[in-house]
Write a structure and sequence with these properties.
With 230 residues, the chain is mainly alpha-helical. It has helices at 5-25, 28-31, 34-39, 41-50, 52-68, 74-85, 87-111, 114-120, 122-135, 137-144, 151-160, 165-175, 177-192, 202-228.
Length: 230
């Protein structure tokens, strides 16, 4: 049975509408937690194994919608991907979703919702713009590597600032790789654990150390370069 392009578009639009409705008017934002993933872990893993290609397409679509709307908790989507698909596949799927969704958010903030977003993110935008004009693409790479800064906020601020779209895209694709690996690794550990204490193992300790390096390393580098700059 061949499904027409119009049918696929209709199904995709339906999924987008359901996801947006659940996020803004339902409890999806409260259910998207590590605890919920652990509680329904086996059910989700079995579901993905039985419908791998459909689950992959749905995951990428949800990631694109989530990033396009600049919704928070993107890291939990990556953790869920690591739990369901493993590290390499999740990095590939999330990279594609980040590229499409992040670019959509970038363009929307620049050409559609600029005035409203300027009022909302005024102080953050001023600081972001000053740092970008001072350090250029190096600044984008640094903040992309810091898991404590939401991806959605960087996409919006980049669109509101003077960041060229080409610079935005290549810094996004390179800068998110450390975070994708770290969060995917956490998800993989969740898929293997039998109880919450299993997270306190050697792999998770190394992962936490890497997260600390990703957070503190760029900050230390920025402070050192700032003191050396006359």
């Amino acid at each position: 049975m061949v499904i027409s392009r119009a049918t696929l578009i209709g199904i995709a639009m339906l999924i987008v509408s359901i996801y947006v409705s659940l996020w803004f008017f339902g409890d999806l934002r409260h259910l998207l937690t590590v605890e919920t993933l652990c509680l329904h872990k086996q059910f989700l893993i079995d579901l993905v194994q039985q419908n791998y290609y459909h689950a992959t397409a749905l995951y990428i679509l949800i990631y694109i919608v989530h990033s396009s709307l600049a919704l928070p908790a993107t890291s939990l989507l990556i953790i869920a991907g690591g739990m369901l698909f493993g590290i390499p596949a999740t990095m590939a799927y999330a990279s594609l979703g980040s590229l499409i969704g992040g670019t959509n958010a970038f363009l929307a903030s620049r050409f559609l919702f600029g005035e409203a977003l300027h009022r909302r993110y005024g102080p953050q935008l001023q600081q972001f713009h000053q740092q970008f004009m001072r350090h250029h693409s190096r600044y984008l790479l640094i903040i992309r590597c810091m898991p404590i800064i939401p991806f959605c906020l960087i996409n919006v601020l980049s669109g509101l600032s003077l960041v060229p779209i080409r610079t935005f895209i290549w810094t996004l694709m390179i800068g998110i790789l450390p975070s994708l690996y770290l969060y995917s690794a956490i998800g993989t550990e969740i898929s293997l654990m039998q109880n919450p204490w299993d997270l306190l193992n050697y792999n998770m300790v190394i992962t936490c150390i890497l997260i600390g390096i990703c957070i503190c390393g760029p900050i230390a580098y920025t402070r050192i370069t700032r003191t050396r700059t006359p």
